[in-house]
């Protein structure tokens, strides 16, 4: 049986606390997007434990395919084809989405309906943030509660380096239907992952506790009620305020000049923005009727320095089909 999974993508608004001072690490908030996405076909077979990959990003696909087959069928192999893909390490959760899409398509091709949470544990995703895992599972605006420290997670770092189960989901809200998001992906910007990302996480230990409190206040009384009530002006103000406190301030510190040029341009235009995850993707919330006008205004001065697209929020997770 051949199965296909169409993933989502996500905006990661911020991590909350890397100190563990209250007995938990990480925590975060994010928004599920319809596009960009990965489309992954898979067909598992018994008798020959080999992985055949067709399409881009073979290393991630093969690693995740091997992880899930090791758990569910050690004597099986799989043929995997990636027909649609978006860039990894640009702040849109590409690795987690590709990994989960691969794992789900393989599992379903063997007739197994494995919960996304379990697939994330098997493939080693969600060890820092749960936003990508829950975006894949159910979509919407998501807040996760971080990891018990040191019980579930004994050290600080990105998911590629620290194994822990996905954190608990503590809130899921419907994204207002008339909200969209302009995504600006600077061309040629550094992709932050690996040892550099690991080093940046260590800087999170130095975040003053007062900034963690301030960030929590903005999330609880700014971001979350703005989503629940459809108050896009409050959402914009809240997102903008987050850029200069806590871990987000550290993430901005490592952006290259071409990303900072875009930030300064948005400041001059009076457009409120956020940066997703480690960047370099910058996002702008907008009502559906105004997004095209804002994008055109941005494209006039951006002069091909970035890819600009509009994506809708998504209130459902990834889609899978077998035939």
Could you explain the architecture of this structure?
There is one protein chain. This protein has 10 helices and 14 strands. By secondary structure, the protein is an alpha+beta fold. It is globular, with a radius of gyration of 19 Å. The mean pLDDT is 95.
Poorly predicted runs: none
Count of helix runs: 10
The helix-and-strand class reads alpha+beta
* Overall mean confidence score, pLDDT: 95
Strand-helix topology:
Blueprint: E1 2-6, E2 9-17, E3 24-33, E4 39-46, E5 51-54, H1 58-72, E6 76-84, H2 94-109, H3 116-123, H4 131-138, E7 141-144, E8 147-148, E9 169-173, E10 179-186, H5 194-203, H6 209-229, H7 232-242, H8 246-253, H9 257-269, E11 274-275, E12 282-287, H10 291-302, E13 306-312, E14 319-322
Parallel strand pairs: 5-6
Antiparallel strand pairs: 1-4, 1-14, 2-3, 3-7, 3-8, 4-6, 7-9, 10-12, 10-13, 11-12
Helix pairs in contact: 1-2, 2-3, 6-7
Main attributes of the structure:
38% helix, Ribosomal Protein S5, domain 2, 10 helices, 323 residues, 14 strands, alpha+beta
Write a concise synopsis of the structure shown.
By secondary structure, this protein is α+β, with helices and mostly antiparallel strands. The chain has helices at residues 58-72, 94-109, 116-123, 131-138, 194-203, 209-229, 232-242, 246-253, 257-269, 291-302; strands at residues 2-6, 9-17, 24-33, 39-46, 51-54, 76-84, 141-144, 147-148, 169-173, 179-186, 274-275, 282-287, 306-312, 319-322. Strands 5-6-4-1-14 form a five-stranded mixed beta sheet, with helices on one face. Strands 2, 3, 7, 8 and 9 form a five-stranded antiparallel beta sheet that branches. It has a four-stranded antiparallel beta sheet with strand order 11-12-10-13.
